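Quick one: sequence plus zinc ion SMILES, need structure tokens.
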Amino acid sequence: MLNIVYYFIKMIESISSVKIENYDTLNYEQLKILKLQIENEIKNYNSKINKLKNLYINIDNLTYKKCNHNWVKESSCAAYERPAVYCNKCLSYKK
Ligand SMILES: [Zn+2]
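Reply:
Sure thing.
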């Protein structure tokens, strides 16, 4: 478990402005500040991830609209299921 914490701290240090060294020697107030810094980093990354997800969805919708689709039936489904239809160019399922 400690190795995971150490790894996490090194990762945070490498990709953020938060500097964490010898955190086990920090006092209570310093630890509280450190926790806040890490919480802020997590919020920043979550915000970036959400922006990237929205961007991805928008681009995915645009590629769907702009693709000159070539619809094919999926062959790997069970006999009782209706075969799904997808485009073998943009790899989207028919909407
Ligand atoms: Zn397509």
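The radius of gyration is 23 Å. The helical segments are 2-15, 28-66.
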